[in-house]
Amino acid sequence: MLAIFIILLLTAGFCAVMMCTQDWKNRIIPDVYLFPFMLIGLLVIAFFPWFFDFGESVIAAAIGYGLGIIMGLLFKKKSPDAIGLGDVKLMAAGGIWLGVSGLAISLIISCALGGIWGLLKKQKFIPFAPFFFIGAICSLIIIMFLI
Predict the structure, then answer these.
(1) What distance in Å separates the CA atoms of residue 53 and residue 61, rounded to the nearest whole number?
(2) Residue-wise DSSP of 14-38
(3) At 146, which helix (H) or strand (E)?
(4) C-alpha distances in angstroms, 136 versus 18, 88, 123?
(5) What is the rounded distance in angstroms from the CA atom of residue 87 to the CA atom of residue 102?
(6) pLDDT truncated to tens, each residue of the chain (147 aa)?
(7) DSSP labels for 89-137?
(8) How much is the pLDDT for 128?
């Protein structure tokens, strides 16, 4: 069982790296990496001990998706390309892996880091995936040691 868990985590890590690379280079988060990342998250939550249960994971995914849609609609007036559907689906995937509190922590960290990077580099477009995964890793560490 441990070998399956490690293989799932390594595959999820590969998907995360590929999503970050593609978002950084091409400003797109491909579904070919995003959907397996979501599915692996559901498998890990369902069959292996994790920080929270399957129900919280599904609720957090819905919250992440809803927040993404709301942010997309709010920023649509300022810039039509402000947030893409890949970013919205990534927030849902983050909800699966991180739960409600972890998703909130991750979004705060990722938005702060992305905003700082955008201001320093004077960038109009900010690749969300790399900053989201940095925030997700920080969130998992915070959940593991503080909560």
Answers:
(1) 13
(2) HHHHHHHHHHHHHS---HHHHHHHH
(3) none
(4) 16, 15, 23
(5) 17
(6) 889 999 999 999 999 999 999 999 999 999 999 999 999 999 999 999 888 889 999 999 999 999 988 888 887 777 767 778 899 999 999 999 999 999 999 999 999 999 999 999 998 788 999 999 999 999 999 988 886
(7) HHHHHHHHHHHHHHHHHHHHHHHHHHHHHHHHHT-SS--HHHHHHHHHH
(8) 93
Here the tokens at position 23 are 């978002």
In the block, residue with structure tokens 């995937």? 93
Give the tokens for residue 88.
Answer: 């919205």
Length of the chain: 147
* CA 37/CA 43 separation, integer angstroms: 10
Identify whether the C-beta of residue 117 lies closer than 8 Å to the C-beta of residue 87.
no
